[in-house]
Write a structure and sequence with these properties.
alpha+beta, 2,3-Dihydroxybiphenyl 1,2-Dioxygenase, domain 1, 2 domains, 9 strands, four-stranded mixed beta sheet, five-stranded mixed beta sheet, 28% helix
Length: 206
């Protein structure tokens, strides 16, 4: 064991407290195509005698070969914080799509199921569409605009400070269907050509 070595642990999963495990499991199944690898209920006697954890049930979910990427903990009586955006805590979590078409196909699939996006933006380094789960946790789906992570990192290190370019996902879909390349979509978004007719105010959910 080398106690002087500097390790670099990688993000593996995150946990969310929920008031409704079933609703949350179903949302993440639908939106991120997650599946449940394990699910348990805490015995009632363990909770009332304070010999168990403060939650009543939990579920381990993933959408790849990792055993779990998300853990949902059900806490009876938990409530959504109406002032959540004024408090510290997890701001959002992001999941990467392999291609722009994967991102847009997901947008269309969710839209047809009645799940609307919050907003969309080109951050320069990537193109993102944001969603809100049933308990107001923000989930970002994005695609890297560059051919490699290294190229994206180099862009980010040299980019000038500024706000992202807002996008209307429907305009993005239309441009892609018209034959616009992924890179030209990025260029047009940054030029403001794919902006929504009414700008989104991110202060409402961010």
């Amino acid at each position: 064991m080398n106690t002087s070595a500097t390790t670099q642990p990688k993000l593996a999963h995150y946990g969310l407290a929920t008031a409704d495990l079933e609703t949350m499991v179903n949302w993440y199944r639908q939106v991120l195509r997650m599946f449940v690898n394990h699910r348990s209920k805490i015995p009632w006697v363990a909770r009332v005698t304070h010999q168990g954890p403060p939650f009543s049930a939990f579920a381990f979910l993933s959408n790849d070969d990792m055993d779990h990427r998300l853990v949902l903990f059900e806490i009876s009586g938990a409530a959504i914080d109406p002032e959540k955006r004024r408090h510290t805590g997890l701001q959002h979590v992001a999941f990467e799509c392999a291609t722009i078409d994967d991102l847009l196909d997901t947008y269309l699939r969710l839209k047809s199921s009645g799940i609307a996006s919050l907003w969309a933006a080109d951050h320069g380094v990537g193109t993102s569409i944001y969603y809100e789960d049933p308990e107001r946790n923000v989930v970002e789906l994005f695609v890297n605009n560059y051919e490699s992570r290294r190229a994206a990192t180099e862009y980010l290190r040299t980019a000038k400070p500024g706000m992202p370019a807002q996008i209307d996902p429907a305009k993005l879909v239309a441009a892609r269907k018209a034959g616009t390349s992924a890179w030209n979509l990025h260029e047009r978004a940054m030029a403001g050509e794919l902006a929504p007719d009414e700008p989104y105010d991110p202060r409402t959910h961010f």
